[in-house]
TrEMBL record:
The lineage of its organism: Eukaryota, Metazoa, Ecdysozoa, Arthropoda, Crustacea. It comes from Daphnia pulex (Water flea). PANTHER family: NICOTINAMIDE N-METHYLTRANSFERASE, NNMT/PNMT/TEMT FAMILY MEMBER. The keyword S-adenosyl-L-methionine applies. This is Nicotinamide N-methyltransferase-like. GO terms for biological process: methylation. Keywords: Methyltransferase, S-adenosyl-L-methionine, Transferase.
Length: 267
C-alpha cells in the first residue's frame, strides 16, 4: 500500500514542504558556475534583443520562487517586470525582499556583482547594489501562477508579454512527462506573437531535495523540450548546455547538465 507521503499530489508536496529560507540557503549560498551560466546567457540575450530600446518590453518570470536573480539583466531593459509563483510563501519572501532595504541585499550581492561586471568592466560592490535597486524599481508585482492551468496567471490581466523567463520550473511542476507539452503551451499562450520564451533548467534529473524531502521532477531531455516548443508554435533560436560537474558537488541535484534555451513564438 502506498504511504501517506506517496499519496500527496505534487501541489501538496510544494505547499507543505517547500521552505523558501531553506531553499535560498541551500541552493543560493554564493555564486557558482551554474548561476554564472544562467546570468551570462540572460545578459547576452537581453543585450542582443533589446539594444537601445530601454523600458519597452513587458517581461514575466514564471515560477520565480523566492529568487530575484534571473530578472537582474531584464531590469536594465524593462521597468515592467512581473514575477510569479505557485506558492504564497515564495511570493511573500520575494515581496519582502523587494520592499526591504540594503540590509537584505548581502545574500544576493555576489550575483548582482557578477551581473554588474557583465554590464561594465569597472563595476564594484556599489554598482552591484545599484543592480539590486534597479530590480526593486523594475518589478511591478509578484502574482500567483499555476503553469498547469490553461490560463497560468489565473485571469490576471497582465498578459500578453514580450519575454517570459522560466528557471527550474516547468519540469518541477508536472508529475508526468506527458503533461510537459501542455504546460509549455500554457506558458507560451501568455506571449505576444514573435515573443521569446527563455527556459533554463536541468536535463535528465529526477529529483532535488528540500531538507531530507526528495522533491520529484520529470526526467527532461532536449528532444522533449524541442517537441513541446514546436507543438506550442515556437522554434528554438538559442541552446547552450553546462555539464553538472562544473557545479559544486555538494548540491543535492541529480541532473546531468543545465540548459539555457531561447524559443521564439512563430504562430
Ligand atoms: C526548483 S524551484 C525553482 C525556483 C526558482 N525559479 C529557481 O530557479 O531557483 C521550483 C519552483 O516552481 C514552483 N512551482 C511548482 N509548481 C508550480 C506550478 N504548478 N506553477 C507554477 N510554479 C510552480 C515552485 O513554487 C518553485 O518556486
Amino acid at each position: 500500500m502506498a504511504s501517506k507521503e506517496e499519496n500527496k499530489t505534487l501541489s501538496q508536496v510544494y505547499q507543505e514542504e517547500f521552505q523558501p529560507d531553506y531553499y535560498i540557503n541551500r541552493y543560493y549560498s554564493g555564486i557558482d558556475a551554474g548561476n554564472e551560466f544562467c546570468l551570462k546567457n540572460l545578459h547576452q540575450f537581453f543585450e542582443q534583443e533589446c539594444g537601445e530600446n530601454k523600458n519597452r518590453k513587458k517581461i514575466l518570470e514564471v515560477g520565480s520562487g523566492p529568487v530575484p536573480i534571473y530578472v537582474m539583466s531584464a531590469s536594465r531593459w524593462s521597468n515592467s517586470i512581473v514575477c510569479s509563483d505557485f506558492l504564497q510563501q515564495n511570493r511573500e519572501k520575494l515581496t519582502q525582499w523587494l520592499s526591504a532595504g540594503r540590509e537584505a541585499d548581502e545574500i544576493w550581492s555576489s550575483y548582482a556583482l557578477y551581473v554588474a561586471q557583465l554590464e561594465s568592466e569597472s563595476a564594484d560592490k556599489e554598482t552591484a547594489f545599484l543592480v539590486l535597486d534597479r530590480v526593486r524599481h523594475s518589478v511591478r508585482c509578484v502574482i500567483p501562477c499555476d503553469v498547469l492551468q490553461s490560463d497560468p496567471l489565473l485571469s490576471n490581466t497582465e498578459s500578453p508579454f514580450d519575454i517570459i523567463i522560466s528557471v527550474f520550473c516547468l519540469e518541477c511542476a508536472v508529475s508526468f512527462p506527458k503533461e510537459y507539452p501542455s504546460t509549455v503551451s500554457n506558458v507560451v499562450r501568455l506571449l505576444n506573437p514573435s515573443g521569446h520564451l527563455i527556459m533554463m533548467g536541468g536535463l535528465e534529473g529526477e529529483h532535488y531535495f528540500i531538507r531530507d524531502r526528495k522533491i520529484p521532477r520529470i526526467k527532461l531531455t532536449r528532444e522533449m523540450i524541442n517537441l513541446a516548443l514546436q507543438n506550442a508554435g515556437c522554434e528554438i533560436v538559442t541552446w547552450h548546455e553546462l555539464p553538472r560537474n562544473l557545479r559544486p558537488p555538494e548540491l543535492p541535484i541529480d541532473y546531468t547538465a543545465m540548459f539555457f534555451c531561447v524559443a521564439k513564438k512563430i504562430c
